[in-house]
Amino acid sequence: MPAALPTLALSVLLMVAGAPPTPVLHGTYQADCAPYDGAAFRVTLPTTRGRLFELRANAPLEAMIGTWNHDGGNARPGSAMILSCSTAPNRGCNYPDRGWFTIMGKPGGQISGSFFVLYPNARRLEMHSFTARPVRGGGRMLCG
User: pTM here?
Assistant: First the structure.
């Protein structure tokens, strides 16, 4: 293994190694508004286990391609967060301690990517791959 491999990357490889494979999630994405009334986007990914993941970032939809680090959803431009929410009414959402997501493709068409999350008291990183299509009728948002 190269000596230049960062410690975090090595830790991630060790945590993911041996993890059971997860199915590819399929969902939608759309423009949204950030807490400070600026542009944002949201990717919604339902699972078969009664929950859904939301990947959000305070950036315009056109800038969604790339890697985003979960920082708890600070209300500033470029901030990103990952949520795991129950689909049952009033069950709430969980926030990971750490995580990041990568989006590939072209906004306006199908996108794909992956995300990693580490929840409090978890022993290993949870990893998922996904594809998403734009929400029908989900055009530009007028924020502010």
Answer: 0.81
